[in-house]
Amino acid sequence: MSNYYKILGVSSESDSATIKKSFRKLAQKYHPDKNPGDESAASMFKKINEAYQTLIDSNKRREYDLSISGGGGFSHFGRVEDIFSQMG
């Protein structure tokens, strides 16, 4: 699993304003329109966007933090334990 904090260059204690500021700076640097034909920049742009979408949403960020600390699995549908508990 990617370290979203490292990708955005912020600490795990960063607030949403800091995360947003870092995202905007990096997104501008790696945006495909500014780097036409550069596949590594396009790949980095996707990673930056994925990291931002996770860390800016408080629920997704909480799940992500739990997953990297060993507190449960992370998925786009929620914690793995929650999914299994809903199944019966």
Protein traits:
88 residues; mainly alpha
DSSP strand tally:
0
- Class inferred from helices and paired strands: mainly alpha
Distance between the termini: 28 Å
The helix/strand order is HHHHH
What does this entry look like structurally?
The protein is an all-alpha fold. The chain is built from five helices and no strands. The chain has helices spanning 4-8, 16-30, 39-55, 58-68, 80-86. Helix 2 (16-30) runs antiparallel to helix 3 (39-55).
Quick overview:
The chain has five helices and no strands. It is an all-alpha fold. The model is unreliable at 74-79 (pLDDT under 50).
Topology:
Layout: H1 4-8, H2 16-30, H3 39-55, H4 58-68, H5 80-86
